[in-house]
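Appendix C reproduces, verbatim, an entry submitted by the partner laboratory led by Prof. M.T., so that reviewers can inspect both the input and the predicted structure.
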Amino acid sequence: MMHRLCFLFVLFWVTSSFASAGATFIQKAERALDIMDHPQVIAATESVLKSLGSTQEDRLRAFELQAYALIFLGDDVHAEESFHALLKIKPDFKLPKDSSLKLLQVFSKVSLEFAEAQKKLFEKHLEKMRAQIRVTDETTTEIVGGESLTFRFTLEDPKKYIDKIMLAYRKNVEEKYATLPVGLNLETGQWEVTLSREWTENEKGLEVEYFVSSRDKRGYAMRDLYSMEEPNFLYVRPGLLSANQPFYKRIWFWSTVGAFVGASTLTYMLLRSEAQKCTMPPCVMGE
């Protein structure tokens, strides 16, 4: 137990010594910069950067001071390297507003280069994410008008990158695309969205164009299926909503029933009327 306590004490003492040494070198560098002793600034900041006990704040300040000194010495190339190293630790770093024009020019150049490099790295990261996602279209290629239209897709997303899937569709080329979220059908395990029978009914046949896009939780585009420029399409044959109604909902059914009931009622009334006219045998009065 005593050995362990001694070890922890020594570790704490060594760490504290390193940390205090880093702060001391930062102070030396700041004083040297005030008197424009730029070689001394670089020497002090190098000591901070080489020290294993330097804190992140010490390292940030060391890169900043080092870049200042190098620019004053006319060494823009190495100053840019210091600024790059600083931005890797703190990407949102900004120079003080009262910085010299030369400092601002060098830092602005480095900031643009850093932002472009970060953008490329992020695009590579997104591509790796997209490569793990598959969207398969299982929608029927042809239906009859007056039938509901269900778009079906199978999504393979092992790491659950996708947060939202959207369907864009239209039935006339000149129309704008309408959009709907595609939801998971828990019974089939497929991603589906259904359009109403009223939407598909038509007299001459029509083509429906559509494509699918997906986004992650941050709103970045993931895996798309088709596109606005190259959509997929399916054909809807001529068909009206009335043609797909059950027989008991169709007009002809109730017209027939009405005619039958009317004819039966009329026949009954005529027979009863004739029966009431008979007052002598062999006629028998209707009850």
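The chain has two domains: 2-92+99-130, 134-244. Additional entries are available on request from the coordinating office.
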